[in-house]
Amino acid sequence: MSWYAWGNAHSAQPPVVLFHGGSGSWTHWVHAILPLVDAGRYVVAADLPGFGQSDKPDRGGDADALSEPLAQGLANLFEGRPIHLVGFSFGGLSAGLMLAAEAERERRGEPRRVNAQRMVFVGAPAMGVVPERQFELKAWRHLETEAERDAIHKYNLGALMLAHPQNIEGLAFEIHKANMANDRGGRRRLAHTDILARSLPPVTSEVYAIYGQYDALYKAWIGQLEAAYRQAAPQFKGMQLIEGAGHWVQFEAPEAFNTALAQVLA
């Protein structure tokens, strides 16, 4: 796995660990890192297994295949030091499954390797409130020309990641295009289930949620999400909706998102 770090590793505050979304890399957090560092936090961002510059997991490509390498990586990096974990979309789902697996290890009498005091879910799927899939993405790898592939990348950005078409151009497009080229993960089906909601009951971390108002994963059902978290997570502390933002909320509304994240990490 590749991990990227900024700031003072000896800060008295818990490190902030960032997990990116599906078909992504640490660059999903490009607007969130420096504000955290400026606030005195030590920030560590992963390229999840199968994405960015990280090798694929030993077997499987969905979120459940990442629990072991993520837990082992965090154990190697922090050796039980308290951390604040922030997971975006697929990264939030992966983090939730990892924490549930660590709780199961502890139930069996094995040591817990990850000491996540706080878990912040950003645009995470699989909370069980949506009756059917809310979007469809288009395939692009079979296309022959770069122009054709670019057109599909922009369509997919608009269908899932960003609420406002004008935000698709420029940096968002360049990040998305580069990340798609490095996506070596398998098919990801768990995001369209309720597995995160079913995995949260044994998780003892404080749980927070930050979502964009127009998150394409939920659309009309976004209003039911807070109740789902409250029912599933014993230590749920609250949810914030960022007005005017879509799924990739930390990119589309960086100032509002960074303010919300600073509040829940304080």
Features:
7 strands, 9 helices, AB_hydrolase_sf, seven-stranded mixed sheet, AB_hydrolase_fold, 15% strand, Epox_hydrolase-like, alpha/beta
Structure description:
- Keywords: Hydrolase.
- GO terms for molecular function: monoacylglycerol lipase activity.
- Pfam families: Abhydrolase_6.
- By secondary structure, this protein is an alpha/beta fold.
- It is 35% helix and 15% strand.
- It has nine helices and seven strands.
- It has a seven-stranded mixed sheet with strand order 1-3-2-4-5-6-7, sandwiched between helices.
- Strand 4, helix 3 and strand 5 form a beta-alpha-beta unit.
- Helix 4 packs across helix 5.
Short recap of the structure:
By secondary structure, this protein is an alpha/beta fold.
How are the strands ordered across the major sheet?
Answer: 1-3-2-4-5-6-7
Q: Radius of gyration, rounded?
A: 17 Å
Q: Can you say what the CATH homologous superfamily is?
A: Alpha/Beta hydrolase fold, catalytic domain
Low-confidence stretches: none
How much of the residues is beta strand, in percent? 15-25%
Shape: globular
Structural class: alpha/beta
What percentage of residues falls in helices of 4 or more residues?
25-40%
| CATH topology category name | Rossmann fold
Distance between the termini: 29 Å
Name the average pLDDT: 95
Number of structural domains = 1
N-to-C SSE series?
A: EEHEHEHEHHHEHEHH
Please count the beta strands (DSSP E, at least 2 residues each).
Answer: 7
CATH class: Alpha Beta
**Corresponding CATH architecture:** 3-Layer(aba) Sandwich
Describe the largest sheet. Answer: 7 strands, mixed
GO molecular function: monoacylglycerol lipase activity
Keywords: Hydrolase
Organism: Comamonas serinivorans
Pfam families: Abhydrolase_6
